[in-house]
User: What shape does this take?
Amino acid sequence: GAGVSQSPRYKVAKRGQDVALRCDPISGHVSLFWYQQALGQGPEFLTYFQNEAQLDKSGLPSDRFFAERPEGSVSTLKIQRTQQEDSAVYLCASSLGGGRARNEQFFGPGTRLTVL
Amino acid sequence: AQKVTQAQTEISVVEKEDVTLDCVYETRDTTYYLFWYKQPPSGELVFLIRRNSFDEQNEISGRYSWNFQKSTSSFNFTITASQVVDSAVYFCALSEAMGNTPLVFGKGTRLSVIA
Assistant: This one.
């Protein structure tokens, strides 16, 4: 399909494990966002890329969280030494970017991470 | 700082009733965008509408309508003649107008439409 895809859809990790979550944005979309959605809450911003440049990582909750987008398309969110409080749905969104007037963010289905 | 408040946590209506979801926002920006997203049980956020702060004209799209009132910092969403398929969590969100900026979401309102 032509939408944003994320993998895996579900991930169960033991506390202390490292995890990597993948996002494939819509082809041609310059901007890519990661959000964290805890149960019963709205999504909260983690980090933002424009092409391969990470322009804002102010929302990353700790230095255990790391994101990259080396070629300006696929992005990976890595969480090291997972903790129970990291359990959430991680959402990826992409938009055309480039200052275009219509800049809606299109969201992927999310990865539900459960840390035991 | 930007903030979005959706005071209604859960709403339950009977099919064919009209329902309004409230959204109140706070921002110091004079130019900003407001959004509504729908999150069905599948989890994917579906974009419904975007409004910019200069356009207070109300909008209607089928059974959906939006009432933007700058004077009360509100951007309410009404579903007319609700259907079971409208059951979902609805999020109101706010962003700065310049460039690509993150969305600030409310906590969402869970709407249940009962047949």
